Amino acid sequence: MKATPAGHGMFTSRWLAVGATAVMLTSVALAGVASAPPALGTSAAPGLYAWGADGATTAFAAGPCGTGGAGCLTPVPVSLPNGVTAKAVMGGSDMAIAIGSDGNLYEWNDQYGPFPIPSYCTIMTYAVSAPASLICRLSMPQASVHPISVSVGTYYFLVLGSDHNVYSWGHENPGALGTVSSTDNFGPSVEQVQLPAGVVATDVSASRSFALALDSKGEIYGWGHNFAGQLGPNATLGVQYATPILISGFAARAIATGDGAFALAIGSDNNVYAWGDNANGELGNGQVLDGLGCNCNPTPSEIDMTGMGSGQAMGISAGVVAGFAIAQNGTAWAWGYDGTGALGNVLPADYPPFGEVPTPTEVLLPPGVSASSISSEDCDQCAGDHWTTAVGSDGVYSWGNEGTDGVGAGSLGNGTPDGSYTPVQVSLPSGLVPVSATTSGPTGVALLRLPGLAITTVGLFDASVGAPYSAPLSATDGNPPYKWAIASGKLPKGLHLNKHTGVISGTPKRTARSSTFTVKVVDTKTKIKPHTQNMATEVFSLTVS
Known about the structure:
The protein is an all-beta fold. It folds into 2 domains: 2-449, Regulator of chromosome condensation 1/beta-lactamase-inhibitor protein II (Methylamine Dehydrogenase, Chain H, 7 Propeller), CATH 2.130.10; 454-544, Immunoglobulins (Immunoglobulin-like, Sandwich).
């Protein structure tokens, strides 16, 4: 499951979420959000919350929400081990990954992973008949490298490191790990993907059997199995590529991969492009190419998005065989295979004969609700049911999974086991607002924070001596415009923070292992008495090499 913002610089996801600026979509999660359950008599605590099938993504909950896989019909708090707080979370097909405040990655899944259980993993069991889950604490190869973003495929995931390299962990789906060894990696740390020399990665996206990386020049690289043209016109159909090859002939700003062997990108012109399999209309070109042979187009082709108003997308996301985009006005659009209502734009009375919607059609969010993130997934253990989760301007919404019961029950998080063809609001605890939301197998996961001004940047890329550097910090809510400052510590010599834009820039003059500093942001005093002003802080580390 994969989604990406139209602009990169902070933590992005394979789903859409507000981050960089204004409505720019990134699956960025608020740094340092606590995950501890609230004390009795107090309001809900910020952190991770999960809902859906018992025994999967609810692995960190205080206990099962039901027996025999009945599921959590509403969100419950999720606690990372040893007091670690969540900085970001990303889901995929039956597994999820959190970036911890300790710089480690926490992977949990449903009955999948290394056996026998090594010391860095813990098995979590629930009520009789409920499945077991594993949680594994994974490290980056070097202590100086920290994770910037994560993208989850099918039983594996990719990590974008602060050193602009890509790392992988998990099951070697036909070459998807992108490593020289081309074998499963269930070790205690992630392994580096073998990108071509000189490639500076800025984004990653993992799918079922292939993966993409975006570099600083806007070029797209891909690896894995090219059975439907998803690795572009330079790849041979049916061939497996263990290491990345160049795909794009155009400059891209964002990438997203679908588990059904197709890919999306936002070009430098802000238009949406698609390539790969089109058996279910996932290329958004009005065609459905069901039949024998390869129903594919290996050349990135522009999707007609004029129905969105501006014709340009702020962000994209890809489900299994469905594409999603968010317009500049916050409307959400979907196309491809509707599955069990996963597109959220077709009422039962108007349902197409084969569930295919081959052109972008607006998602039926409630009037006045704008979207900032979308995440869509299927469930291997739920007979391939599909559902979608989105962050809206007033909370989290879910839809799909229509007609499913049993293990998939509760995946919409609205207090009932039923599915829905149109978006319904997830029953989040009061007093909290969503940073991001994602699907993971038969469950949903959201990262929630307290309302008010907040810094949303997760981490900073490394800098190099003598090379120009620029990293925008981002904030949300409060009363803009904001003013930025270094509250404590120091930036590496040669770098400075612009107090008006929040951009760290300059040219580092000497090597420093790592500089740790606290950034402060304040908003503008309100014009109405009592003239309140808000402040938020966050600690960052920046390495100069």
